[in-house]
Design brief:
- This is Beta-galactosidase.
- Belongs to the glycosyl hydrolase 35 family.
- Pfam families: BetaGal_ABD_1, BetaGal_gal-bd, Glyco_hydro_35.
- Keywords: Glycosidase, Hydrolase.
- With 601 residues, the chain is of the alpha+beta class.
- It contains 10 helices and 31 strands.
- Helix 6 links the parallel strand 8 and strand 9.
- It is globular, with a radius of gyration of 25 Å.
- The C terminus is likely disordered.
Length: 601
């Protein structure tokens, strides 16, 4: 049985220990690639893997838990143990992580009397139920039980959100009551205000900081905070940012490899421990991308979570990997290192990919949601029991004038396409929703359809609990000056596209599904090239591999080899803008476009 303690340094089996860790989120990496990613972490000379745990994937509906397949946290930790890697697990109900609503399940938004991420008893009861299912997996894998988990986190960057110590203690107690007995920690920005608000230092919960440079300065701040509270703890950066995430319509952010190596060297020479965020970033498959909060115009993140990390999105080593291995070899000559494992991706030209069918969204509403929700006023996505994807709201409106009518979508998120008699009238995004749409109704009686997309909820900051995190139409739709009644809502989570009717027809310019087939000799990584299409999502063999959008900066979607198969594969592209093509291609590398818009907000 191994032991791990936090004294004035980390102590493993009675000997001083430096944590050299890297973040790999099992839920962002296909399980067929877990071994390669973990092996490459070990081969670089590191000794620990860190991961968050996403509540929203593990409890997609209240009381329904999923820890199987690609969500098998147990298998991921066991694979790490087999390679001789220790593990830090961050099972806080909130993870941030540029992940949809910071990992909170959207169904929490149904209860407007509950305040998530607070001491609210109703919220804590939901966390307790979740932890009842989660903690047995982790408890059995603690180092104190013969496993490889050496530390767990109570909350994540809480000092950047609130200062409710009673809440923090409640989360800690939920963990302790379920058998967690390894050291607990928090991670926050390394300045006093953030540390004071977000830590439980007086309760002996270990305090770490998050930063990506200026280690001497940040460690000095962290040490001063420790000493202020009478602690002589070791210094650790729980998130050393080696790259950054990307958002639609902005250039890809990169970090120089030598700069990263120099900064990591500085931290290690100061005697600190490190967790690289990210070691392997992976992919925001499906609808799981997060959103950066801004005053008016929130900025949604892209599907790729490449992060310019040590391993690229596909899981292959970058220049950063080799430079960091050199640092480890120099500073820790006794550490085991080796050459990395790599993969290759396949390319399939458009001439070899066959269009087998196209069908319209309007023609398949009954297939995608056989029981639409009827209501007097439009309801939010969450109130209808839906978490992600799209909603198609439908009603009938009369023509009162030969002049253009005034149509307004009042209080909706995130993006609305307005159709009259299945003809696109307007597209509005975020801050423009609610502005007048002037349109002359062509018939005495007309069908009004509004397709609303949830583009991802805020994962960090002051808008985390804002009403804008409820998606769809929240108030109603006005024609002239009055609200229109009697709506049907089709919930389009697109969880199963296998039953689409490709004989049902399609009208040009309307949202559609295009089905393609491609053949490969064996399962292989590839990248779907969405150049020429507008906006939507792609499914490969029924798996939602993520969103695409013509505004860039990335024009491909990564498909892991674990999703493909030898022989014929199916690719379905859901396109909302009416941009279609009878051909599509697969690339062997991502396609990144340099945009005129520079920098980030």
């Amino acid at each position: 049985m191994h032991t791990f303690e936090i004294r004035d340094q980390f102590v493993l089996d009675g000997e001083p220990f430096r944590i050299l860790s890297g973040s790999i989120h099992y839920f962002r990496v296909d399980p067929s690639d877990w071994h390669n990613s973990l092996y490459n972490l070990k081969a670089m000379g590191f000794n620990t893997v860190e991961t968050y745990v996403p509540w929203n994937l593990h409890e997609p509906r209240p009381g329904e838990f999923d820890f199987a397949g690609g969500l098998s946290l147990a298998r991921f930790l066991d694979e790490a143990a087999e390679l001789g890697l220790w593990a830090i697990v961050r099972p806080s109900p909130f993870i941030c992580a540029e992940w949809e609503w910071g990992g909170f399940p959207a169904w929490l938004l149904q209860d407007r009397t509950m305040r998530p991420r607070s001491r609210d008893p109703k919220f804590l009861a939901r966390v307790a139920s979740y932890y009842d299912a989660l903690m047995p997996i982790l408890v059995d894998r603690q180092i104190t039980h013969g496993g490889n988990v050496i530390m767990m986190q109570v909350e994540n960057e809480y000092g950047s959100y609130c200062e409710d110590k009673e809440y923090l203690r409640a989360i800690r107690d939920l963990m302790l009551e379920r058998g967690v007995d390894v050291p607990l920690c928090t991670s926050d920005g390394p300045w006093r205000g953030c540390l004071r608000a977000g830590t439980l230092i007086d309760d002996d919960v270990f305090v770490t900081g998050n930063f990506g440079s200026r280690s001497a300065e940040n460690f000095a701040n962290l040490k001063a905070f420790h000493e202020e509270h009478g602690k002589t703890w070791p210094l650790m950066c729980m998130e050393f940012w080696d790259g950054w995430f990307n958002r639609w319509g902005e250039n890809v952010i990169t970090r120089d490899a030598q700069d990263l190596a120099d900064c990591v060297r500085e931290l290690l020479e100061l005697g600190g421990s490190i967790n690289l965020y990210m070691f392997h970033g992976g992919t925001n498959f499906g609808f799981m991308n997060g959103c950066s909060a801004r005053h008016t115009h929130d900025l949604h993140q892209v599907t790729s979570y490449d992060y310019d990390a040590v391993l690229n999105e596909e899981g292959n080593p970058t220049e950063k990997w080799y430079k960091l291995r050199d640092v480890v070899r120099e500073l820790f000559p006794d550490a085991w290192t080796a050459d990395p494992v790599t993969k290759t991706a396949v390319e399939v030209g458009a001439e070899k990919i066959r269009l087998t069918g196209r069908t319209g969204l309007f023609e398949n509403l009954g297939v995608l949601d056989a029981e639409p929700v009827s209501s007097l006023y439009p309801q939010t996505m969450e109130d209808m029991g839906q978490s992600y994807g799209y909603v198609l709201y439908r009603t009938q409106i009369e023509r009162d004038t030969s002049e253009p009518e005034r149509i307004r979508v009042v209080d909706g998120r995130d993006r609305a396409q307005v159709f009259v008699n299945q003809q696109l009238v307007a597209t509005q995004y975020q801050e423009h929703i609610g502005e007048d749409i002037r349109y002359a109704l062509p018939e005495e009686h007309n069908q009004l359809d509004i397709l609303v997309e949830n583009m991802g909820r805020v994962n960090y900051g002051h808008k985390f609990l804002a009403d804008t995190q409820r998606k769809g139409i929240r108030t109603g739709v006005c024609v002239d000056l009055h609200f229109v009644l009697n709506w049907e809502a089709y919930r389009l989570g697109l969880e199963d596209v296998s039953k689409l009717d490709y004989a049902a027809g399609w009208a040009e310019g309307t949202p559609s599904f295009s089905r393609f087939e491609f053949t490969i000799d064996e399962p292989a990584d590839t990248f779907v090239d969405t150049t020429g299409f507008g906006k939507g999502v792609v499914f490969v063999n029924g798996v939602n591999v993520g969103r695409y959008w013509e505004i860039g900066p990335i024009s491909t979607l990564y498909v892991p080899h674990g999703v493909t198969r030898a022989g014929v594969n199916e690719l379905v592209l859901f396109e909302t803008e009416g941009h279609v093509s009878d051909s599509i291609s697969l690339r062997s590398a991502p396609l990144i476009n340099h945009l005129e818009k520079e920098g980030v907000e």
